[in-house]
Amino acid sequence: QQPVQSPQAVILREGEDAVINCSSSKALYSVHWYRQKHGEAPVFLMILLKGGEQKGHDKISASFNEKKQQSSLYLTASQLSYSGTYFCGTEDTGRRALTFGSGTRLQVQP
Amino acid sequence: GAGVSQSPSNKVTEKGKDVELRCDPISGHTALYWYRQSLGQGLEFLIYFQGNSAPDKSGLPSDRFSAERTGGSVSTLTIQRTQQEDSAVYLCASSHTGTRQETQYFGPGTRLLVL
Q1: H-helix or E-strand containing A71?
Q2: What angle do CA B34, B37, B43 make, to 5 degrees?
Q3: How far, in Å, CA of B115 to CA of B98, rounded?
Q4: Are the C-beta atoms of residues A106 and A18 closer than 8 Å to each other?
Q5: Partner-chain residue, chosen from B41, B100, B104, that has the shortest CB–CB distance to A102
């Protein structure tokens, strides 16, 4: 089952903050966050591991609630370069590949 | 290059023809993944290779789709008798060992259009 992302889309002004949520019905080993700009490959942002460890981008933070199988990506003081579609990919007890949400389209305006 | 590379970057084909898509993973990465992204959609898992283990083919949508990985490096995804619904961006990713909780790095993708 595909993780559920919310919101589907958000428009910000530069400097504003945003939170993107990802929720799964399965027990997870990890949650991976990617940003994809139009026509480009997804770029890795952050991985959150079962057990609390985080690895990723200095300017982007995230949380992982293992009990609820939910993750949130926090974008603070947004910049124009933050625009793109954000995907969460979840790793569960099944296959090793990631199961991706449908994405959150973020647009930062001047 | 240091990243995952894919070729061709774009492919236009006629319905019913076969196509081959190629992926070169990051050097030294033993795990390789294929995903498909339809227009405006998320990424859909297709197949996963890890070392010499049998591939996980659970995501392949039909028997028209197949993939192989030669010598533990380059992979080819083949779509036989293409259909219009096969039109999508096919993305390849690799990771160091394929163990759990490992970052996957994506290539630029092949944009396939079936007319």
Answers
A1: strand A70-75
A2: 70
A3: 36
A4: yes
A5: B41
| CA–CA dist B22, B10 (Å, integer) | 12
Sign of CA dihedral B79, B81, B85, B87: positive
Nearest to B100 among A2, A29, A100 (CB): A29
Report chain B residues whose CB lies below 8 A from the CB of A41: 4, 91, 106-109
Contacts of residue B109 in chain A, CB cutoff 8 Å? 41
Mean pLDDT by runs of 10 across the 115 residues of chain B is 89 98 94 91 91 90 94 93 96 88 90 97
Residues in chain A with CB shorter than 8 Å from the CB of B36 are none
By the 8 A CB rule, do A25 and A99 touch?
no
